[in-house]
Amino acid sequence: MKENATSIDRRSFLGLGAAAAAAGALGLAGCAPKTPGEAPLSETGDSAPANNAADWLGVEPEIAESDIVETIDTDFLIIGAGTAGLAAAGAAGDLGMNFIVCDKATQVPETREYLGGVDTSYAKANNVTIDRPKLLNELTRYASGKCNQKLIKLWIDDSAEYVDWVTEVMQEQGKEVMLDMPPAHSTGGTDYYVPYVQHLWEPSYVPPMRNDVIAERLAGQGHDILFEHEMVKLLHADGKVTGAVFSTKDGYKQVNAKNTLLA
Ligand SMILES: Cc1cc2nc3c(=O)[nH]c(=O)nc-3n(C[C@H](O)[C@H](O)[C@H](O)COP(=O)(O)OP(=O)(O)OC[C@H]3O[C@@H](n4cnc5c(N)ncnc54)[C@H](O)[C@@H]3O)c2cc1C
Q1: Which SS3 state, helix, strand or coil, does residue 134 take?
Q2: Mind listing the domains of the chain with CATH numbers?
Q3: Which of 25, 111, 117, 139 has its CA 20 to 30 A from that of 255?
């Protein structure tokens, strides 16, 4: 919701309080609209309007239709084949969906070994108990309250399903899951809540690594990742994202998709 400088109500004012404290030194006056036509402050105190194209991504390029060398249609476009993209692709592959994964790199990124999951099958089999409200509270404290608790709760409630899936996939490669990170905090300082959530697959730090295993599994299902496809522009129609344009060594390619995941 946008507010103009003269109609900030009490709720918005309180919401802006913390930001205003930090912005004090910078001078909020500098953020206020200077002329009637200028962009007003948003609720979060941003001076940039939501539709400002010149944001951190820069101005999107103009690409003529005649510059598109290929157009592909799919149900589900996944942009990015890293930790998040491969998780989505793994699920899409097992569900038999029609989808495409694109990444600007030449291969999947290096796997980060540890995967956090709450109340996974392995943890339950090893009698690990986790106090979920306490964990939510601890992660909120760790972020100094500057976090989306709903997102953290989603991870607390749903992460086990993905870790269990990875465990099955890695087992097919002869790797076994284990838990790491003891609850006793190594700093010996404040007694923070650090339950067992970190999973890794033994033997760890040796191939095959998780990202490669998932990529090979996808290839086995007929879903090759399109590497060296750099997303340069999202496509929209009626306020909905309808796909993206990629820069490739052959030229621009357009992917029309019913659903797009920017991962
Ligand atoms: C040294 C190190 C160790 C870490 N260890 C751990 C750990 O043990 N456990 C843990 O949970 N986390 C760890 N992390 C953090 C973890 O790596 C990230 O949180 C995680 O990779 C983020 O996943 P992601 O899918 O959002 O992004 P990424 O895994 O970075 O994937 C993003 C992908 O998008 C692609 N991409 C970007 N821009 C475009 C574009 N325009 N077009 C097409 N493709 C594009 C990139 O090439 C990349 O492959 C570690 C991080 C570092 C740096």
Answers
A1: helix
A2: 1-54 (no CATH), 73-220 (3.50.50.60)
A3: 111
How far apart CA 156 and CA 130 sit, in angstroms, is 10
113 lines ligand 1 (CB under 6 A): yes
Average pLDDT, stretch 105-121? 95
How open is the CA angle 224-228-230, to the nearest 5 degrees? 110
SS3 label, residue 115: strand
Question: What is the rounded CA–CA span in Å between residue 123 and residue 116?
Answer: 11
102 lines ligand 1 (CB under 6 A): yes
Each residue's pLDDT tens digit, 191-234? 778 888 999 999 999 999 999 999 999 999 999 999 999 999 99
Least confident piece of the model among 15-24, 63-72, 249-258:
15-24
Which atom of ligand 1 has the smallest separation from the CA of 108? Answer: 49
Which residue among 77, 101, 104, 110 has the greatest number of ligand 1 atoms within 8 angstroms of its CB, and so is best to mutate?
Answer: 104
pLDDT of residue 190: 61
Residue nearest atom 6 in ligand 1 by C-alpha distance: 112
Q: Is the CB of 84 under 6 A from ligand 1?
A: yes
Residue 202: both structure tokens together: 């033994």
What 3-state class would DSSP assign to 162?
Answer: helix
